[in-house]
Amino acid sequence: MTDNRPIEERVDEVVIGLADPAECESITRLAETDPEVAALLDRARLRYGELDDTAEPVALPDDMWDRVAAALDSDVEDTEPVPATTVVPFLRPTPSPKLLWTSITSVAASLLLAVALGWMLMSRVEPTVIAVLVNDAGNPVALVEGTEDNTTRITLLGPTTVPEGRIMQVWTKPDADGPPVSLGILDRVESTQLGAEGLPTPSVNQLYEITFEQKGGSPTGLPIGPIHGKGLAQQPL
Amino acid sequence: MTDHAQLIQACARGDTASLRSIMEAEGGRMLGVAKRMLRRVDLAEDAVQDSFVIIWQRAGQFDQTRGAAKGWLYTILRNRCLTMLRNNIWEIPTETEIMERLQDSDIIAEAYDRLDSSSDLRRCLDGLDDTKRSAVLLAYVLGYSHGEIAGRVQAPLGSIKAWVRRGLAQLRACLS
Fold first, then answer.
1. Per-position DSSP letters for A16-39, written without gaps between them
2. Is the N or the C terminus of chain B less surrounded, counting Cβ atoms within 10 Å?
3. Greater confidence, A172 or B98?
4. Where are the domains of chain A?
5. How far is it, in rounded angstroms, from Cα A43 to Cα A49?
């Protein structure tokens, strides 16, 4: 598919991490038999490797060697044969069902414009659960109403200051023991309705949280920014 | 200075002390690279641990004539991190596990600033416009995919791919 592209470009994309696993494997195979490709790879790694040197070293935990030594006989990799080369192919993705929600909502987060609907457009559906999100000082900052079809209405309470360059991202934990999942992004300080597909109906004691994330949403698919407010859902009587 | 190539070759002969020497020489930096990409210390430690196991298992395949030892080591680490990122191997983070809450733009700016002032890479990155430079840095430093870069800079995926390719071509021309 991409084979007619210049080999230098393909090598660069492998080295900076933008090639998909199949392409990595393809370049790996080429490098096995073609010293010129191997040389291109080595040169690109050397160039971009300067950026690895800019990472601040972090002290290894005391037990790191014990962990490595204990794992030496284990099989970290898949059992597929590894070609004899200095090129290291990507490991084959092994999709894990338990990560499904995270994946779905990561995609949802990147499609934020598609899911954020104006407050005015929503049709009022009775909420299944309501959560009042409070900040560290214990002040209420948002009211979250979750409906049976997982429409989530966010009503911001009081003055809301979003740090420069950030947006608000709304999270919930449909499974108390599972990862938080993104319900969407509030790129404006206004009450909003968010739609998320594929999530179970919200339930009592489900955690809701708003964090300040970089524009476009958390890059990891998990909340990593400061918490604006959080709270547990209750059933309205 | 540690001769990484000799140490890797010794690993291939079953010398675990050499693997440990590599870990002592490069482990801290490798953990730093992994932490920057994965954002969480616990995941970064897992990536480093796995990488040393892979280094051990593949040491016999290392061919000094085909590439530098350090590049070989970091490629293993980076690929491990990318695999973890792409597979979305996240579990529930606890407060202590969550990394310093730095924004991506700060992290890539820091990486760029820390490049040696005499570095050709830095000089050539200087020559790129902001979007192309950011795209290349987001990919390499943070392990962003094309789609994630598109989300980050709010541009269509096709444009991002084209920008990255043009950026890489400019860098190659500048660096050659």
1. HT-S-HHHHHHHHHHHHH-HHHHH
2. N
3. A172
4. 1-94, 97-232
5. 10
Whether the CB of B63 is below 8 Å from some CB of chain A: the reply is: yes
Alpha-carbon gap, residue B176 to B171, rounded angstroms? 8
Confidence tier at A113 by pLDDT (50, 70, 90): very low
What is the second-level CATH architecture of the domain B104-175?
Orthogonal Bundle (1.10)
**What is the distance between the alpha carbons of residues B124 and B122, in angstroms, rounded to a whole number?**
5
Residue A178 at interface with chain B, using a CB cutoff of 8 Å: yes
Reported as a single tens digit per residue, the pLDDT across A58-103 is 999 999 999 999 988 766 554 333 333 334 333 333 334 444 444 4
**Mean per-residue pLDDT, A190-202:** 79
Q: Do A57 and B142 touch (CB under 8 A)?
A: no
Tell me the CATH number of domain B4-87, given options 1.10.260.40, 3.10.450.10, 3.10.180.10, 1.10.1740.10. Answer: 1.10.1740.10
Question: Which residues 43-72 of A are in CB contact (within 8 Å) with B?
Answer: 45-61, 64-65, 67-69, 71-72
Average pLDDT for B26-52: 94
- State ipTM: 0.91
Residue A214 at interface with chain B, using a CB cutoff of 8 Å:
yes
As given in the structure block, the two tokens for residue A20 are: 């998909």
CATH T-level topology, domain A97-232: Immunoglobulin-like (2.60.40)
Our measurement of the distance from residue B139's CA atom to the centroid of its chain's CA atoms, rounded to an integer in Å, reads: 9
